Amino acid sequence: MEHDRRRSSDDDSLHQTSDTRPLLKGSEQRLTKYVVLLCAVSTIGGFLFGYDTGVVSGALVKLKDHFRLGDSEEEVVVGVAVAAAAVGAVLGGILSNWAGRKHAIIISSVFFSLGSVLLFTAPNYALLVIGRTVLGLGVGLASMVVPAYIAECSPPLYRGKLVTAFGASITTGQFIASVIDGAFSSVDEGWRWMLGIALLPSVIMGGGMFLLPESPRFLIQQNHVDKARGVLKKITGLQSVDDEVEAIKEVIDAETEHSSHGIRHLISKIASNKPVQRAILIGCSLQCFQQLAGINTVMYYSTTMIKMAGINDDTTAIWLSCIPSFCNSLFAIVSLLIVERLPRRTLLLSTLFGTVIGLILLGGAYYGIEATVAPVNRLVDLNSPYYDPHCSAAATNCDGCVSFTKFNCSFCSTSRDSKGICMLASSKTENLNCTYYTADTCYSKYSFTIIVAMIFYIAMFATGLGTLAWTINAEIYPMWVRGYAMSLSTLTNWSFNLVIAFTFLDLSNAITKYGAFWLYAGITSVGWIFFYFKLPETRGVPLEHVEKLFEDRPR
Predict the structure, then answer these.
(1) Consecutive sets of 10 residues in the chain, 555 residues long: mean pLDDT of each?
(2) CA 103/CA 495 separation, integer angstroms
(3) Are 427 and 386 in contact (CB under 8 A)?
(4) Given 62, 73, 81, 385, which residue has the most CB atoms within 10 angstroms?
(5) Could you tell me if 84 and 140 are in contact, meaning their C-beta atoms sit under 8 angstroms apart?
């Protein structure tokens, strides 16, 4: 408690200092229609980010059948977009510093559009992977550039809310994706429409950004002061913005001294600047733990997870996946409504604790399901045509049987909860009383607990870390390092996202489904401890002040 009181006191004094000037001061801060329009168009990038990462959950079930994908190929379809997004995030930092935030967003819309066309027309697995790669580049660019663009065009009083709107647009995109998945789940080759329909919003974003300005900070950095003054007038609704222009120029002039000698000099300056190092550590850690909390196992594989819980029908599982997607969107909006009413630190720590509980509940739900599915009769005659050394001898229950995807095992019994045999899926079943037969999922009367645990987990995650990782990252870096730091933190996000995407199915087979979620819970607990001791309060701090947050404090 003493730790928090001391931090609060220090942060309060920082908010009250007056040696630098915010973009708008005190009562002059207001949200203009122009800012709303600017944010509405640019956050389509967040919507596309969410849509293109969320749509694969339902599409994957159909793609698996259409292209006959195994677990590894499924992970490639998911993971290749994540890997490309990591590359796009790096390019985003370079591109936004060279061409500006606006043009970087326009380029991301080109990638979104091209990727959507490739996926809609994909005749084979190879082109499917290429389409996902192109799409991933757009996602990575948007995830890095859009939050920075919004932060640089927003009054400090509304900056947190507007950047959080980017996070909310991601979850809205994921929810819409799940609805589109459900709508086309019964259509022949409906996966093409699921993956291709993102073309429409990407064209709208690209066209809209052509009509919007570059951020005033970037314009001043490029010595386009008159243009920046015009943009500031539209953003603020004021006739005179000389104070704001001078404040930004002073900061940029000071920061230019750090970055005018190229990347080596920039790295050298970062190495000698402990406050910036701490800011980068916090920013990258937020993105790291956002992914290691397991959210994208739920968003990428939600339909697969629901099927794992015993829902055998594809269409039913796809529609049920709308429930966690809707909750993700709903609670992101809740975060948007409260982000400026509560301290960022308090909101993050409280919801992160809830996220740990949610992961424990998810693991517990899978544990309960696995303990109650139909058992396997392991006393099968070795000479029986249905005996297989991999299937018959290893599995103890239905779930363990169908999890042996490497050996293509299936479960056969007289009813969905009675003892049965585990055999090769290619075995003929004409002479068996297979009233209940599955090579995919197993029935459990506790299947509903997965949905309940998902809802609680997502409510906690979406209200806190899901949106605050982007909000805090957009406001903790000084101008001279912001582009590179945002790029690095976004790269961290996509790198750990890639780890999760490529390992979840294999991990759940190796240490069980419940073991995977309990592992995520343990990792997230480490994140809570780290943020408790290291995360400062950033609410309401002008961008020109952020470096002071990470200076050494007296003990």
Answers:
(1) 42 38 48 82 89 84 82 83 85 82 92 94 93 92 86 77 79 88 87 92 91 86 84 76 76 65 77 89 95 83 70 78 84 83 91 96 89 79 66 76 74 84 71 75 80 91 89 81 81 84 81 91 97 86 71 54
(2) 25
(3) yes
(4) 81
(5) yes
- Nearest to 285, CA basis, from 80, 465, 163: 465
> Coil, helix or strand for 476?
coil
The separation between the first and the last C-alpha atoms of the chain, rounded to the nearest angstrom, is 14
CB atoms within 10 A of CB 116: 26
The Cα–Cα gap between 275 and 29 comes to: 28
**Rg for the chain, CA atoms, rounded:** 25
Both tokens of 157, joined, read 């009083």
- Contact call for residues 22 and 542 (beta carbons, < 8 A): yes
Q: Give the predicted TM-score (pTM) of the model.
A: 0.71
Rounded-to-integer distance, Cα 487 and Cα 86, Å:
9
The residue assigned the tokens 């003892």 is: 419
| CA nearest neighbour of 82 among 168, 128, 43, 140 | 140
The residue type of 246 is: E
CA 488-491-494 angle, to 5 degrees, is 155
Instruction: Enter the tokens of residue 106.
Output: 């326009």
Task: Determine phi and psi for 224, rounding to 5 degrees.
Answer: -100, 65
Assigned token pair, 25 = 């001061």
d(CA 524, CA 534): 15
DSSP 543: G
The Cβ of residue 551 has, within 10 Å, a number of other Cβ atoms equal to 11
| Single-letter residue type at 377 | N
DSSP character at residue 375? B
Using CA atoms, how far residue 463 sits from 47, 338, 357, 409, 540, in Å, is 17, 9, 14, 41, 19
